[in-house]
Design brief:
single chain, 2 strands, about 0% strand
């Protein structure tokens, strides 16, 4: 019985306290001065400075007004009341500007995020072409450079005969070897082979790899052109040398003959040609 009575008394006291606190809170929220202050701080309006002044025969009789806004109030209060509209949430207020800047910053942040995501995805895509382990699967390599650089890949590293060099005959090869043309070509071939090997085995960006392919292909074409030029020049040189040898031998043969014998031999040589 005593426990039930104690519980009942506690409940009554709790309800009474809650009711009193609720009335006190409602009273404070409905205070005209506080409500007016709230309105000034948001978007509603500037003004309505509570408490209001009261005059009796031209004399201010409202002590609350005098101490808050009137002649007894601090100067900062009077400056605030007579000053500009400083509502934070007015159309041009500080809070509105801050919210607008925040929105702009959020849009910019989203833009940066999209750009960073794009860069990241691009880096992920390019990583497959960065490593030398996947160069054989690159479409541009398969479609063009693999075919164009195949002759360089299959060309002997150290050719030892005229056939391996693609020269006309062994005489021309020996002539080029003696005058240093073969050594010059071998040096350029070594550089091309080394550049080709690096472009296929080193890790590098895809663009740089294809620049190396392009430079290697241009160097290979120049090498073939120089090889053909050396081949033709040496062949022409040997032909001239042989012709000069024939002419010299003919002149020596003619020197041992008389004029009559020379004319007879020429007539006999061209007898069946005309």
């Amino acid at each position: 019985m005593k426990k039930s009575l104690s519980k009942l008394i506690a409940i009554v006291l709790l309800n009474t306290s809650a009711s009193a606190f609720g009335q006190f809170t409602v009273k404070r929220l409905n205070d005209p001065a506080i409500v007016a202050q709230h309105k000034r701080m948001v978007f509603e309006s500037w003004g309505n400075f509570k408490p209001d002044p009261k005059y009796v025969l031209g004399v201010q009789t409202n002590f609350a007004y005098a101490t808050v806004w009137g002649w007894m109030a601090p100067s900062i209060n009077r400056d605030y009341k007579d000053g500009d509209d400083i509502r934070p949430l007015k159309p041009t207020g500080i809070e509105v500007q801050r919210l607008a800047e925040l929105e702009i910053q959020q849009e910019y942040a989203e833009k940066v995020k999209k750009e960073s995501d794009t860069i990241y995805k691009r880096n992920v895509q390019d990583f497959a072409n960065w490593t030398s382990a996947t160069v054989d699967a690159d479409p541009l390599w398969l479609l063009y450079y693999k075919k164009m650089l195949k002759p360089l890949k299959e060309f002997p590293v150290h050719p030892q005969s005229f056939g391996e060099w693609g020269i006309k005959d062994d005489v021309t090869y020996q002539s080029m070897k003696s005058n240093g043309s073969i050594d010059n070509l071998q040096e350029k071939l070594d550089l091309l082979k080394d550049q080709y090997e690096k472009s296929r085995t080193l890790d590098m960006p895809r663009g740089k790899r294809f620049l190396m392919y392009h430079e290697t292909l241009a160097g290979w074409r120049k090498f073939l052109k120089q090889l053909r030029s050396f081949n033709q020049k040496n062949t022409l040189f040997l032909d001239y040398k042989n012709l000069l040898t024939v002419l010299k031998s003919g002149m020596q043969a003619h020197r041992s003959q008389t004029d009559v014998q020379i004319v007879q031999s020429i007539m006999a040589h061209y007898h069946n040609k005309y």
